[in-house]
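Sample log: Replication protein A C-terminal domain-containing protein.
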Amino acid sequence: MWNDSNFGGGFVTSPAKGGGAEETPQRRKQGGRQNVVPCTIAQIIQSGDEMMLGSIEVQYIKVIGMIVSVIQQSTRVSFTLDDRTGCTIEGQIFSTESDEQVKLMSQLIEKTYVRVVGSVRTIDGKKILKVFKVNALHDLNEISMHMTEVVYSHLAVNAMESKKGHPMETSNFVGDVGTAMGLTTEQKMVFEVVRNCMDEGGLTVQDICAALPSVKMSAITDIIEFLTNEGHIYTTFDDAHYKATDSG
């Protein structure tokens, strides 16, 4: 199912010559906020100085793979992730004493499949993942779904850029991909409310309900759980406040 010839070739960003992304209008950093973009480890490793999807600079990524090893250090926990696309990558979680951190650490079990959300960093020429969300997979069908999302994202960007003939707005890409990935109207409504919150503490369920009186509280609670598991939103200083991963 994870054969490299099926998922590795044709969907990776080639490294830019000279060690960095060429400064052209098509490759400059796009304005606006970005969503969590599904990708493979091969895409990350083979990217240039900036993680790009077409002309879009990717800020946050989602990867699914198996934890090969876990190393506990005084200031951080490092783990090796393998998604069978020909490469492995190191994920890093810096140690704190928060409840959220304890939950995160509990997911790091060797030989288990996990969904990881984070940002790509380059340290001494080596790509690593700065991780802020890890969830164990409960259904291995999520692996196939993730690979489908990776392929779709690549094709969607190519199609929209070819149609427009110039770099597209990041917000348009986020909306189109979000719809294609199965977000319902109510899910997108809840996500936008959380996303538009500028308060560092985030919003509570009650805040979201007040902003969306037409949506039942039970539905909002289910949607928040879904968006959290998918890495689109996260809890802040406690388990009752939420903020979007890509909020400005």
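Observation: Helices lie at 4-7, 41-46, 99-106, 141-164, 170-180, 185-195, 205-211, 217-229.
Observation: The longest strand covers residues 60-72.
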